[in-house]
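Predict the 3D structure for this chain.
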Amino acid sequence: MIIKTEKDTVQSYFEDQSGLLGGHAHKIYIPENEFEIIDFLKEMSQKKTPVTISGSGTGVTGGRIPFGGVVLSLERLNKIIEIKSVSKDQAYAVVQSGVIVQELKKQAENLGWLYPPDPTEQNSFIGGNIATNASGSRGFKFGSTREYVNKIKVILSNGELIHIKRGEIFASKEGVIALPLKNGKLNIKLPSYKLPNIKNAAGYFNLPGMDLIDLFIGSEGTLGVITEAEVRLIPKISKIFSGVAFFPKKELAWKFALEIRKISLNTRKKKQLLDIDALSIEYLDKNTLKLLKDKYPQIPDFSDASIMFEQETSSVNEDIIIEKWSKVLEKYDAPLDKIWFGTSLKDSEGFRDFRHEVPEKVNEIVRKNKFPKTGTDIAVPENNLIKLLEYFYKTAVKEEIDYLVFGHIGDCHLHANFLPKNVSEFNRCKEIYKNIVGKTIDLKGTVSAEHGIGKLKHIFIEKMLGISGIMEMARIKKKIDSASILGLGNIFPAELTKKV
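Done. Predicted structure below.
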C-alpha cells in the first residue's frame, strides 16, 4: 500500500472537473491489490473513518473530492487481465477498476473488438464509468455502461469481497433483493420511487425485478469499492458514414434530430439493414459553433445550429444509406453542399474531435472568467424535448448571460451551459439552474443523464425523487455500508445516514 501525505502531492486528489473547492483529507491510500483494500477497509470501518474512492479525476459533480477522512485511489489497479472471444459476434474483457477507457478500447480494437460505452472523456477509469453509469455520444445506439457489465467484484466497507454476476440474483415481487454474504444473505428493501424510462444516472437504480448488479452500477462509490469487472465487447466498426449538417434555424435541427431518432429506432425494431440507423445524433447550437469558428473557419455563417451524426455501414449498403440521409437533410433545409460528409473511420474521428473540442473551449472560458459554469445534464422523454428546448432558449434570451447548448440530442439529453462573468451573474445562474431542473422534472425527465449526482446536485435529486426517495437510498446505504464510511456526500447529504 502506497500512502501519500505530502501537501503538494495530495492536492491533485482534491480536484476534478467540477470546480468544487475546499476538498481535504488526512492521507491518500493507493492499494496495489484487493488484499490491501480488504485490510484497509476493515481498519477504516473499525475507526469510523470516512473513505472517498478516487478515480481519474474526470468527473464533473465532485464525487471524488473528499471533505475529511481519507482517500482510496484505485490508480494502481490498472490491469487488463483478459480479453477473450466467446463467438464471432461477442467477446468479453476482464479489467481492474483503474483501467483507462481509451486503453481498453485500443487493446480491444487490436483484437477486432469494440467496447461500446463512449464517454466524452476517454481518460476516465472503467471503475468511474461503472460508478456513474457513464455513456456518451454513441449511447444513442449502444446505450450506457450498465448494459455492458457482466460481472463485478465489490469489497464492502467491512472488508468482505463479493462477486456479483448478471442474471443470478433478482428482486422479489415484494421489492426485496438479497445480497450474498459469507454468513448468509442480507435482504435489502428497494426504494418505492419510479425512475423515468429514459437515459438516467440519478440515484440508485430501481426497477421491478431488477438485477442485483444494477444496484451497484451508478451508486457513485457509496455502497462498496468495485475493484474488477467483466465487460461485454462486440465486433469493432469497420466502415462508417458520418457528417456535420448545418441548419438555418435551430428548430429545423431539432425536428431533423427527432425524425432521425424515430427512423433509427424503427430500423432496429424491424432489424433492417438498408435504412437509417444512427450511432450518434449530436446537437451544437449557434453559440457553440461560434466558439469553434476560429479553429473551424469553414463553419457556414448562416448556421443557427448543427447536427453531427454517424452510422455504421458496409460496402453493400453505404450508397443507399447516404441517399436516405440526404433526403431527410434536404427536407429540413440543410444545404447538401455545406454538409461535411465522411465515409471513413478517419473522417468520423475528425468529426468527433470537432464535437469534443466544445468542452475544452468551455473550460477555457471558465478559466478566463474565473467563475464556474452552470451546466445541465438533463434528459426528457422524446415527446417533451422541444418543450424543454423552447423553455431554455426563452429563459436564456431573457437573462442575457452568455450561454450555449450542445449534447446528445438523439437521447433527448442536453448540456445547457451558462457562463457567468461576475458575482451577480453567478448567483442568478444558480436560480436559473433550479428553474430549468424544475421544468425538466415537470416534463418527466431526469436531473442527471450521464454524470451522476455527486456532491453538487443534492437539491436537484431531492426535487426529482422527493425526500422520501432520498431517505430510502440512505437506508439502503446504511444497510450495506453499516459503518457509513464510503463516499459520504455523494448522491445525498452524509448526515442522512445518521437519521435512519
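The chain is about 35% helix and 20% strand.
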